[in-house]
Amino acid sequence: MRLGWCRLAMVDLDGTLYRGNQVIPGAPEFILRLLENGVVPVYFTNNSTRTPEEVARVLRTMGIPAKEHNVCTSSQAAAEILLNQVGPGARVSYIGMEGLRLALEESKLIPVPAGLSKESQGAADAAVMGLKTDVTFQELADFCQDVARLGRFVLTNGDLKLPTATGFWPGNGSFGRLVEAATGVHPKEAGKPEVSFVEYVLHKFGVEKESAVLIGDNAKTDIAAGKNAGVYTIQVMSGVPAGQTTEGDSFADETYASVANIDL
């Protein structure tokens, strides 16, 4: 089906526009075709570590004409959830990197690294966990104490594995399960496949779901997010799981080998 009706395309990154450090052939040209056809590309990622400007900069080095405003991260979606929970000016205990810290700050929340909330101006009002590749045992222990006291926390994304050039590292979801096991508190997730992440993007750009499409390679996260939100979905076979589906996976409305083959 041609996408002439589409006003906004939520496009996954790793496995859809690039793999590792290599751009997928035809990806820059696909984004240019979107722009030429009046479709707003939104770079839609579960990666909570990078800021939108950092994401856009990486994409530009690959020849993809990305702007900071068009990047939507799970950190931003998590900050939106927290803002609705506790309001502006609230203190948020967090584990994460610059992408999460900046998202909290830009949402008028006060980011407090886990463990420091007790040492400054009182206890935190909320807690959020994003990936931090050099997290320490003490940070995890302090964060668990905050979560146990609060009885709730937000997880930027529930990805259990983080793909690398040499295999897999534990993803943010794995650390979230550690916190859940230690505290008995189940987190509210912000990233794909959660409906709230898609709704965050639609609201930001003022587009109805009927005028949007979600494009990604992962049936469990990308395609499920679109299906859950009632958005048209396209799966590409250029990344994980490389076209393989398992019981319980969501099936896309359309399937292509890569974004280079999508008909606009």
Written overview of the protein:
With 264 residues, the protein is α/β, with parallel strands linked by helices. It has two domains: 8-46 and 192-261, Rossmann fold; 75-189, Rossmann fold. The chain contains eight helices and 15 strands. The chain has helices at 27-36, 52-61, 74-86, 98-106, 137-150, 172-183, 195-205, 219-229, and strands at 8-11, 18-19, 22-23, 40-45, 71-73, 91-95, 110-113, 126-129, 154-155, 161-164, 167-170, 188-189, 212-216, 232-236, 254-256. The strands form four sheets. Strands 5-4-1-13-14-15 form a six-stranded parallel beta sheet. The mean pLDDT is 92.
Overall mean pLDDT: 92
**Structural domain tally:** 2
Shape: globular
Let me know the CATH homologous superfamily of the largest domain.
HAD superfamily/HAD-like
CATH class of the largest domain: Alpha Beta
Low-confidence stretches: none
Total DSSP helices: 8
Sheet having the most strands: 6 strands, parallel
